[in-house]
Write a structure and sequence with these properties.
Layout (H helix, E strand, L loop, with lengths): L19 H9 L5
């Protein structure tokens, strides 16, 4: 399964859909992040 993570769209935007640690865990579970 592929999981898409949105990037910042506007300069200074602070929302984060995931952290590098969570992305790493998802990859270990077999997901394509």
């Amino acid at each position: 399964m592929k999981i898409g993570v949105p990037k910042e769209i506007y300069h200074g935007e602070k929302r984060v859909a995931t952290t590098p640690e969570v992305a790493s865990q998802l990859k270990k579970l077999g997901f394509d992040v």
